[in-house]
Amino acid sequence: MAAAKKYSEFHLLSADSVEIDSIPAGSPVRLLHDYWQSIAPAPGLLPGRQHLDPLDIDPQAMPWIFLMDVIRADGAPLDYRYRLVGTGNVDLVGRDATGELASVVFNRVDAPFVLDTFDLTVARATPTYWIATVPQDKIGMVTIHRGLFPMARDGRTVDMLLCTAVPRPLA
To answer: What is the mean pLDDT of residues 159-169?
Structure first.
């Protein structure tokens, strides 16, 4: 029996930053985008965890969501702790990373795209959208749509990412 691949062994073969308009209507990424916008406390302020109510998120988006705490340490690169990983993502990659650090799950040498996109979203404090092609053990290559949405308890300092990664087309 072959050993299961670790996340750190996955390599993104291609990835492109895109605008939200490049994501198909009805996609869980678009649904989460609309939800994220709807919970912003005021113009110019980011929503925080306190604004998020899972019961208000479209059920089609829920399996594809993952929440990450932003970890800041003096002099160290940003890191991210998986707080929650939706069942769709667990099934897609074959692993539940809840509680793990992204730097362990995806090391910066093997998968810089993943961590760099998190860093970019935090630095910009605005959502980012991506189309990427990644290997998947069961079906070979899969193209995914990703949306990364910054959250900030104080409305400004990003302390959490609300994310989604959805296979295209949705299986």
So the answer is: 91
Q: What is the 3-state secondary structure (H, E, C) of the chain?
A: CCCCCCHHHCCCCEEEEECHHHCCCCCHHHHHHHHHHHCCCCCCCCCCHHHCCHHHCCCCCHHHEEEEEEECCCCCCCEEEEEEECHHHHHHHCCCCCCCEHHHHCCCCCCHHHHHHHHHHHHHCCCEEEEEEEEECCCEEEEEEEEEEEECCCCCCCCEEEEEEEEECCC
Kind of pairing between the strands at 140-151 and 128-136: antiparallel
Q: Which of 17, 10, 9, 13 is nearest to 145 (CA)?
A: 17
Tokens of 141: 């290559």
CB 164 within 8 A of CB 146: yes
State whether the Cα torsion 82-163-128-147 is positive or negative.
positive
Half-sphere exposure of 92 (CA within 13 A, CB side): 26
pLDDT digits (tens, 9 = 90+) for 58-86: 999 999 999 999 999 998 899 999 999 99
First to last CA, the chain: 26
Q: What is the pLDDT of residue 10?
A: 44
